[in-house]
Predict the 3D structure of the following.
Amino acid sequence: MHWLFPSLRGYRRQWLGRDALAGVTVWAVLVPEALAYATIAGVSPVVGLYAAPAALILYAAFGSSKHLVVGPMAATAALSAAIVGEAADGSSAHFTAMTAALAVTVGIAALLAGLLRLGFLASFISEPVLKGFVVGLALTIIAGQLPKLFGVEGGSGDFFEKIWALIGDLGGASGLTALVGVGSLLLILVLKRVAPTVPGSLIAVALGIAVAAAFDLQDHGVDVVGSVESGLPSFGFPDVSLGDLGDLAAGSVGVLLVAFAEGLGAAKSYAARDHYEVDANRELIGLGAAGLGAGLSSGMIVNGSLSKTAVNWSAGARTQLSGVFVAPLAVITLLFLTGLFEELPEAVLAGVVVAAVVELVDIPSLVALYRVFTRRLGQAYGVAARPDFLAAVAAMLGVMIFDTLPGLFIGIGASLLLLLYRSSRSVISELGQLPGNGHFAALDRHTDSRRIPGVIVLRVEAGIYFANAERIRSTVRRAAGREGATAVVIDAETVPFIDVGAVRMLDELAEELQARGVRLLLARDVGQVRDVLRTAEARTELRHVHPTVRAAVDAARTGT
């Protein structure tokens, strides 16, 4: 049992006060956000609170981060709504049960992945794809909340359809609802800027409840949350069939990828600040245990929260005991405070959601991805010279047009396709000799470098394999066809690997060039390349790799 609660090992008594204070601070943020994110998932607001206690304690028991806070989150809540919406039979009770069941299936998948040491799964969602996905998801969530903010009916469909419907409905907006909703949103945003340590969302919720009760806002056309079940949730496996679980299985994988990538990113960020390491496989186990606990408590999907982790860190948390402190506070809220939320205007809840996700619309990061460009990349890859930006935009538009899970896989697919395209069009630089030191450098980067008469030196800046072998063959052929060429030297220092098909290509190319009176020589290979050239029985001249480019050039000029 020594591996339980790893962050509490070596605990010092003087940390207790800081962890307790951080726990109270996180609770003040978690309560309104849990209520709001549950509405994104399409279930009663209280379901978000149901998910919290067990998830917080179980993550603390199994996770490796000292600071990560788990709970309902916007991205996974939206994924939950999309997946359950397709699988549920239409009744609200079945929808709620399926939401809890999805948390269970994601939890089981995460536990299995952690036990099988599949922590590398997070690498399948690159940071640009995740960034684009989150931006698209945030915009879609905002589009879905704006009708509640202004007190209009709103429309269904993708992001653009929702915005178009909102524009058409604005003429019938409720002025009082808009005042309450927009006022709450502005209050939260202003407090975040001028007093970031103040729980703006909690203050907005408390004020919204007080104003609604004092002025009978419901009687004046302002929609409120309505009846909220008080007390603890029912514990046990959700009331769903095996067929229902099968319907959720495929979607669980996509949710797991997003939940794990988001949580691991937050955990690593704060581990670096405190100079410790997180274990990706333990994070999967911690996420899985938290998800199981949330689902078996009639809750919803949970994952690591960057925003709540930031609050936890800023409040001085030293260990996961801060999360353990949050759990009983959430239970007290369920037992004694849920009745208060019945008077909460839905416009205020929409304001909390918009304020929480608007920070995720990180347009400057997309602009930064667009700026990652050089002339050489443009010449080599054309339209694919900005692969990270294109993958991010593909994921963003995929979510905004085709829904959440398809958008995620569109982004992943675009990223992989761009990777394959770029690797098939590897950069091949021609090198010249620098005056003075005799080193070789790219001609287009060093204007003072000079070609060696009769010897063309090329540097392949990628592995050589089936996808780019023909491009490399064509480039070498063109170089060998220059007037006066007697040899082509391939500088292989930047070639990390080679496959058997590429070895055959080099053999055929060397034989073809030899017939034209041109030699093909290799220089500065790495161990993997040398091993494959030897075991694949390449031509003797190709297996004799020269230690330096200068040695290969000298051999070409002297005919040795």
